[in-house]
């Protein structure tokens, strides 16, 4: 009796959940955004970010797979700027 078995490897893709975080800042000028941006790129899980300088709250919006609010606030504050999470 010959037994043949096919071992198929399943290609499982692990998708990480993306979280959107929103912060009130005082990032008013391009130089401010560049200063914080260089630091944000060093955080793990950051997919994309932007600052809406037209908004009264100069909103920093971050898409990330590692939603560490305290680390982001600390990073922005260490750069010399104000940052607080906005409620949902």
Proportion of residues in helical segments:
10-25%
CATH class placement: Alpha Beta
- CATH topology: the name is Alpha-Beta Plaits
Write down how many β-strands occur, each being a DSSP E stretch of 2 or more residues: 4
Based on secondary structure, the structural category is: alpha+beta
Rg calculated over all Cα atoms: 20 Å
Number of domains: 1
CATH second-level architecture: 2-Layer Sandwich
Low-confidence stretches: 1-10
Please explain how this structure is put together.
A 4-stranded antiparallel β-sheet has the order 2-3-1-4, covered by helices on one side. The chain has a single domain (19-85), classed as Alpha-Beta Plaits. The chain is an alpha+beta fold. A hairpin with a 6-residue loop joins strand 2 and strand 3. Helix content is 24%, strand content 26%.
